Amino acid sequence: MPARVTSVAVRSLLWLYPPRFRATFGRELRADVERDVHDAARQGRLAIARAALVAISDVAAGAPLQWLALSRRRARRQPSARREGDRIMTRLWSDTRIGFRRLRQTPVFTAAVVLTIALGIGLNTAMFSIVKGVILDPLPYREPDDLVSVYTRYPPSIGQDFSYFELSGPELLDLREHVRSLSVSAYQWSEWNTTLDGSDAERVQGASATANLFTVLGVPAALGRTFATGDDAPGAPCVTVLSDGFWRDRFGGATDIVGRDLRLDGRPCTIVGVMPPGFVFPIQQVRLWTSLALHPTHPNWGRNNHDFLAVARLAQGRTIAQAEAELRLLWRRWSSEYPDDYAKGHFVILRDLKEDLVGDLQTALLVLLGAVAFVLLIVCANLAGLVLSRAEGRRREGAIRSALGAGRARLLQQLLTEHLLLAVTGGALGLLVARWLLPLLLALYADDLPRGGRFVLDGGVLAFTSLAVVLAGVTFAFVPALRATRVDIQDALRADGRSTTTRRSSVRAQSVLVVVEVALSVVLVTGAILLLRSYAGLRQLDAGFDPQDVLTFQIFTPSTAYASREHVQQFHATLRERLAALPGVATAGAMSDLPLQSAGGSDNFVIEGAPPTGPGEPGRNARFSMVTPGAFEALRIPLRRGRLITERDGTGQPLVAVINDIAARTYWPSGDPIGRRIGYGGPDGQTWITVVGIVGDVRSMGLDRPAPPAIYVPLAQSPRPDYEGRAMTFVVRSQTNATALAASVRSTVMSLDASLPVDQLLPMMAVVDRAASQPRFAAYLMGFFALSALLLGAIGIYGVLAYAVERRRTEIGVRIALGADRGRVFRLVVSRGLMLAAVGGVCGLAMALAVARMLSTLLYGVSATDPSTLAAVPLLLVAVAFVAGAIPALRAARVDPVRALRGE
Amino acid sequence: MARQFSEKVILVLASVADGDRHGYAISKDVARRTGGGVRLGSATLYRLLGQLLEDGLVEESDRRPAPELDDERRRYYRITPTGRRALAAELRRLDRVLAAARLGRRSASQRA
Q1: For the CA atoms of A627, A629, A635, A637, what is the dihedral angle to 10 degrees?
Q2: How many helices (H) and strands (E) does chain B have?
Q3: Cystine design at A376: which of A120, A202, A518, A679 (Cβ 3.0–4.6 Å)?
Q4: What pLDDT does residue A82 have?
């Protein structure tokens, strides 16, 4: 289907080319485009869309270049053709001048049209440049299409539904050894307090990766080198590569940086290189990379410790299918060698790297791009209506010119020139609008867009804009121009100009345009209402805590300065005391991960006295967090039963834990968990912890994700050796206003240890905002588009009715003179508007149902075919149509029969 | 013939210099040579080919692959002797430019 559309589009666009080019290369060019789209088909729907878009814009943008090349060639070779060309140019120039003059005579009309086009094209250009930056632009790696992310998938059939889960170290070693079709690099997220020569510490996000990372991505360093083989051997000295941004911001782009030691959490690490600008992996926020030893000495080693992410490049000449076949073979081998570990049926899968990085946003952006294209269509329909009624006024002029011998083609050319002039001016202005709109749109998205920050109005965007201008110009100008030149000279020249044939059919054309506008608006309004309801639902959703008036920040205590776990705990305890003593602070506490922000992952545990789960059954697992007293209170996470964690739960006291509702319901379906003991396995046997309380569920992984089972233990007891509590997030409830506390919080931390950076100092409301940034982005934008569409639709209806009333003035006058009731005249006109709205509404609803499927992945808690929404839209439309129709209807009802009949 | 070629023209010429190719194969070959850095859209490609044909640097080749591998819509292009000379001359010129540029940089860094 897209292949057909592309092929037709390319074929039509070829008519914009010089005939000779079309004859020589047309067939080949079409064959190439078809082949491209065909090849893309293997990589999924998005790839097809991309290939199609690239092909169409390429062919569209190529036409003027080809003409240019031709005219240059002619100028070089054939003086006679040059004269012909000059004649064309002269005519074009004179048309342009006439056009300008005429447009200047009607400044309001001109300004209205130009501004409307500018807005329509500006919106489209801005939206397209976002889509281009996020989706269409190739990733900044060598042959990025050959890159994949490697994951484990746990199918839902075994009770653990993780589509894209990490891999374990031994699995990755096997992959590197046995899968010939892939070269695999493993990496982990990391965060460090970084200092250089005793400078202030800054918390920095980074990644540790095996030494082949940059080889796999195929990007060399801009300065120094990337990792070399052996950099990731266990015990090798630490080396790090910096991102261009980090190098510039932090070290002022000093070229002598290579070879110096950066301290990461106090540990020296030699800077070996700096990456080129624009290099990002895997996300913008990662500012440096260190080497990672993928080796059994790694602290989290084990076939069941899924702790590593991986990126891989297809080997030269291999295909995804071959790689997947090898993976299946490897899986079979694992199942027979480690039957217990693989009994749950999880397996390794590959995912296109770009899809992995962009994720869900892709659908949202494509839907929004579709929506904004609808807005442009509505704009064009509206302008076509406007131009139609204006063309009426110029029939006499056209007739006079034809009577004097101007050919129809000449007249058509003149009109088209004039309208294209409008479109081009509007488009140029639209570029300015886009420049201005782009930051506004990006700001709507509270978080950083994936691959964000480098949206530029470049060649591709300009090509898109030119295409939009041409399409808009042709759509809104061609039909009216064609109609305006089909004039019966005698008829038009009759002095009273009361002939009606042309006018009646022009009203019909306008009505069709209005119906189209209304139908398109219905689709947009439906989409907007659904998205807004979904977003409002998300915001009203009880996430399990109260974010109002809470300030949060993160502190990491590195092992160089805080060697033992006692030091760490001492620091947190003192900080908490001082924070709680600050004026204006109600409660202060800390937890190892903040609601809505945790990345997922959970740990297995056992219940004392309960039989162990068998292989193949879902294990007992829950998110494991450490909390201090005051944390639940600060976030107002409700206590259901038992007690919360208190100051008395310290070292030496019995080990205790608080669990959440869902954990209690899932793992103690019939019994009472309070007083029962749960155990975590360690190298030296189980650690047993007594459950003392149950708290409410908290959505820890995101607003739209249900709360997972959770177990909270006191930081002071930190019963598990693998959780040290070095990275803690503080939550401080203010008595008045969270942000007012920021300065005093910062200085409190400084007074304790000036070397520790205060990271992510944010009101909790901002954290919630950020969690909802994607749905809000989609909902607000769609709302804005829908509002514009409704407004344009209303103007369209108003325009048609106003014109119709004007045209039928005499007739209405006669009716009133003959005793027609003024109320009836009013109803006559208004019902005409309602009719248009009704026809458009029905078509629009049908269209809305047809595109509902695209929306459904963006909705939370609302069905894409939600009946109340679908019912509300026509009502809204009727209201709008009534208002739009009322003004001309009132004017009709007030017609003075005497003046109307006198023909004034 | 003192005209300087654009980067894309050089790549297209170099591609057909290696053997007769049809248009699609040329654009793939250019993408491969440049590691995906230069992607020739079809419109660009045929515009350049059109110029090269006019200038006599490339001509249509009458050799076609075996009928079962052949797509009758495609035409094959081959470099002309003039084209080969022009390409060689252009590459030599660029070599000289590059050598001169690198030389300047080396002495600049030595001074620093």
Answers
A1: 80
A2: 4, 3
A3: A120
A4: 52
Q: Which CATH number applies to B7-111?
A: 1.10.10.10
Which of B45, B47, B73 comes nearest A65 by C-beta?
Answer: B47
* pLDDT confidence bin for A694, thresholds 50/70/90: very high
Q: How far is B43 from chain A (nearest CA, A)?
A: 5
Inter-chain residue contact B73 with A31, CB threshold 8 Å: yes
**Do A710 and A825 share a domain, yes or no?**
no
* Domain-wise residue ranges, chain B: 7-111
Contacts of B61 in chain A (CB under 8 A): none
What ipTM was assigned to the predicted interfaces of this complex?
0.82
Q: What is the pTM of this model?
A: 0.66
Per-residue model confidence (pLDDT) at position A218: 92
Domain boundary among A322, A343, A364: A343
Q: Residue A66 and residue A754: Cα distance in Å, rounded?
A: 65
What phi and psi values does residue A450 have, to the nearest 5 degrees?
A: -60, 140
Considering the domain architecture, whether residues A582 and A679 belong to the same structural domain is answered as yes
pLDDT tens, position by position, A500-539: 445 566 667 778 888 888 888 898 999 899 989 988 888 8
User: How high is the pLDDT of residue A488?
Assistant: 57
Angle subtended by helix axes B42-54 and B7-17, to nearest 10 = 70
* Residue appearing with tokens 């002939």: A499
> Total domain count for chain A?
3
- By a Cβ cutoff of 8 Å, what residues of chain A touch chain B? 21, 24-25, 27-33, 35-36, 54-55, 58-59, 61-63, 65-66, 69, 73, 138, 142-145, 218
Other C-beta atoms lying within 10 Å of the C-beta of residue A407? 11
Regarding whether A823 and A743 lie in a shared domain, the answer is no
Answer yes or no: is A885 within a domain. yes
Q: Which of A308, A343, A378 is the last residue of a domain?
A: A343
Show the tokens assigned to A202. 């800054």
A493: three-class secondary structure by DSSP: helix
B43 to A142: CB separation less than 8 angstroms, yes or no: no
Asked whether residue A608 falls in the same domain as residue A736, the answer is yes
Are A144 and B49 a contacting pair at CB < 8 A? no
State phi, psi for B59 to the nearest 5 degrees. Answer: -135, 165
Q: How far is A147 from chain B (nearest CA, A)?
A: 13
Q: What pLDDT shows up at residue A614?
A: 63
Are A203 and A274 within one domain?
yes
Which range of residues forms the domain containing residue A171? 161-343
Tens of pLDDT, residues B23-73 = 888 998 998 888 878 888 888 899 899 889 888 899 888 777 666 666 777
Band of pLDDT at residue A209, cut at 50, 70 and 90: very high
Q: Are residues A532 and A676 in the same domain?
A: no
Asked if residue A191 belongs to a domain, the reply is yes
Mapped onto helix, strand or coil, the DSSP state of residue A552 is strand
Size of interface A-B (CB pairs under 8 A): 68
A535 and A587 share one domain: no
Q: Which among A6, A25, A72 is the top mutation candidate for probing chain B, defined by the most B β-carbons within 10 Å of its own β-carbon?
A: A25
In a domain, A671, yes or no: yes
Q: Please indicate, yes or no, whether residues A574 and A704 belong to a single structural domain of this protein.
A: yes
Per the CB < 8 A criterion, the answer to whether A777 and A444 are in contact is: yes
Mutation to test the A interface, candidates B30, B34, B47, B60, most A Cβ within 10 Å: B47
* Residue-averaged pLDDT of chain A: 82
Of the candidates B36, B41, B75, the beta carbon closest to that of A54 is on: B41
